[in-house]
Amino acid sequence: MSTTEVLEGRVYMTENRMFTVAGRLAAHLYQVEAEVADLHAANHELVCERGRMPIEEKTSEAWSGWAGRSSRWIWGSSARSAERSSR
């Protein structure tokens, strides 16, 4: 094989890997966007739709809901698999 063929093969393999990783990242982004939309709806219901109460009382409830959902993205398998696939 000539040097040109070897380089073209490497470019092809790199592009193929790039598109695979881009697809995974797009799927992950879609999941994150859906989670943000869910959190937005939950916070709207909590802040705007429930009875009037001081914001200090609502803060702990909103925070506990967010912390439970976000921990799987920060520490869960999704973050690790995205990190592995980017290598």
Question: In words, what does this structure look like?
Answer:
- The chain has one domain.
- The longest helix is centred in the first third of the chain and has 47 residues.
- The two termini are 28 Å apart.
- Helices cover 89% and strands 0% of the residues.
- Helix 1 runs antiparallel to helix 2 and helix 2 packs across helix 3.
- The chain is mainly alpha-helical and 87 residues long.
- The model has no long low-confidence stretch (mean pLDDT 77).
Q: How is this structure best summarized?
A:
This protein has about 90 residues and is mainly alpha-helical. It contains 3 helices and no strands.
Count helical runs: 3
Strand residues, percent: under 5%
| Biggest sheet architecture | none
Number of domains: 1
Percent helix among the residues? over 70%
Instruction: Report the mean per-residue pLDDT as an integer.
Output: 77
Detail the poorly predicted runs: none
How large is the radius of gyration?
A: 21 Å
- Number-wise, the strands total 0
Elements, N to C (H/E): HHH
- Spatial shape: rod-shaped
* Ends apart, CA distance between termini: 28 Å
Structural class of the helix and strand makeup? Answer: mainly alpha
Which descriptors would you attach to this protein?
3 helices; mainly alpha; 87 residues; 89% helix
